[in-house]
Each structure stands twice: as C-alpha cells, then as structure tokens.
Amino acid sequence: MSHFVIGMDGSAGAAAALRWATRLASPVGADLHLVNAYRRRFAEVPPDDLERALADREQLLAEWARPAMDRGVTVHMRVEEGDPRKVLDGSEDDTDLVVLGRSGTGSDPGLFHIGSVVEHLAHHCATPLAVIQPYGTGQTERIVLGVDGSPESNTAIRWCARYAGALDAHVQAVHVNEWANRRPATPEERRVFEDPILEWIEPLRAAGVEAAPLALEDLHPADALVGIASRHRTSLLVIGTRGVGGFTGLRIGGVAMKVLHRATTDLVIVPPFDAE
C-alpha cells in the first residue's frame, strides 16, 4: 500500500495539499499520514501545559483531517514536537510521497515567498515531493513532464507511469533544446529531435498512459515548463531533481529550483528512487 505524508498546519495551502493527496490516494489505495509539528512558544513550558497544548493540537488535526476521512481514505494522524522541516524530513522510510502546501502558517519564508519548509525539503527529501498551490480544487487534468534523457528524468517518467492513470490525466512530455540553431527547425530536424522523446516515454505508453512529445528550442527549460503548465490551471508539473547539465554535486539542480520558485501550478519533484 502506498504511504503519503501530508504536512498539516491549518493553512489554506495545507488544506489544498490534503485535497490533492486525497484525490490521488483514493484510486491507488494509499493511506494518508497527516503530520503536524508543534513548536513551543517558550523555551520552558510546564509538563501539564505542554500535554494540554499537544492534546489541543491533536484535536485540531482531527478537524483538519475530516475532508479526507469523509472520502473514505484511511487517515493516520501524528502531532510531533519540533521544527516542521526536521519532522517532515524525518518521515518513515516507506513514505512514497510527501505533500505540502506551497506556503504555510510559518513566519520564515524562503526565497520568492515560497515556504521555508518546502524549500528545505526540496533540498533534502529523499522521496517525491508534491508542492500544491493554495485554493486549488485538487484536480489534475494534464501533466507537463520535463524530460531530457537523464536518470533523474527517467525516475520522473516512471512516477508518472505509476500515478498519471490514477489522476486521469494525459501527459505532455516536454524536452527543451537550449543549444538549437537560431533558425527555425525543418520538419526533418524536428522529427529527429522528437524521436528520442518517444523512446524516453515508452514506460508511459506501456502503462496505458496517454502521452504526447513536445520538442522546443532556444528557451530556458524552466521558463518553458512553467509557461506551458500555466496555460491550464489544472496542470501538474512533474520534473526530476536534476537534468543532464549543471553541477553534479548539487542535491537539486538549477532548473528544478527555478521551476520550484516560479511555478504557478501544482508541482511534483522526483529524486532518484525506485518507482516500482
């Protein structure tokens, strides 16, 4: 059974994350593990006061979980004291997906107003990370999938092969050639450019997922992916943590970071992992 972890803090982003995760969990039979991190307001708190505070937070978490429970999804709830970045980063090894709202109730936003918890997990999370826009419906009708032939891209393809059918979404597999000639490509050149995409996305076709290739030239990959996805509000962007270029020592590549900060639609970042 799949195991999804959702960070819950009572924010609109967290509520949207729960809606999206619930919609995905229902068809795949996943259970949801709702996690709330409690941070003390003062360094020294009497034990009785701390116990009451944790009990109150557990009651709140149960209220926040009600929409998922009403859909018949198996829900587990956990309140843990500590920094939410560390609490969520330390999720169980059998976690298949971590789902967060793009921003929460915290007062420490990262760059470009993305939540610091999201930014931290993007750099450190060992499982796929879904970043959900606030006030979304939870629906996904189209997946914009970034592909480039890299191992990380292949894991993103395999993630889509596993979950796109459950989302009832068709896939647009996008490859951007930044170093193409400035002149427009001929039909033959474009066919040669698209042929590798068809090979890369064969796992999607094998899984019965509707997928179409799209080759673009002379654009930055992040700009292309964000722009294409933004044309439809119900798009989901899916990318690997790294591509074929850049500094291999970095945990997450420059394209992925730019997409993370600029995306206006829901996003899944897939690190190297066994998707089977």
Gist of the model:
The protein is an alpha/beta fold. The chain has 9 helices and 10 strands. β2, α2 (47-70) and β3 (75-81) form a beta-alpha-beta unit.
Textual characterization of the structure:
This protein is an alpha/beta fold. The protein folds into 2 domains: 130 residues, HUPs (Rossmann fold); 129 residues, Rossmann fold (3-Layer(aba) Sandwich). Helix content is 40%, strand content 22%. It has 9 helices and 10 strands. Strands 3-2-1-4-5-10-9-6-7-8 form a 10-stranded mixed β-sheet, with helices on both faces. Helix 9 links the parallel strand 9 and strand 10. It is elongated and about 75 Å long. The chain starts with a strand and ends in a 6-residue tail after the last strand. About 5% of the residues have low confidence.
Explain the layout of strands and helices:
Layout: E1 3-7, H1 12-28, E2 31-38, H2 47-70, E3 75-81, H3 84-89, E4 97-101, H4 116-124, E5 129-132, E6 142-146, H5 151-167, E7 170-177, H6 187-200, H7 202-206, E8 211-217, H8 221-230, E9 235-240, H9 254-262, E10 266-270
Parallel strand pairs: 1-2, 1-4, 2-3, 4-5, 6-7, 6-9, 7-8, 9-10
Antiparallel strand pairs: 5-10
Helix pairs in contact: 1-2, 8-9
Question: Characteristics of this structure?
Answer:
276 residues; alpha/beta; Rossmann fold; 2 domains; ten-stranded mixed sheet; 10 strands; 40% helix; 22% strand; elongated
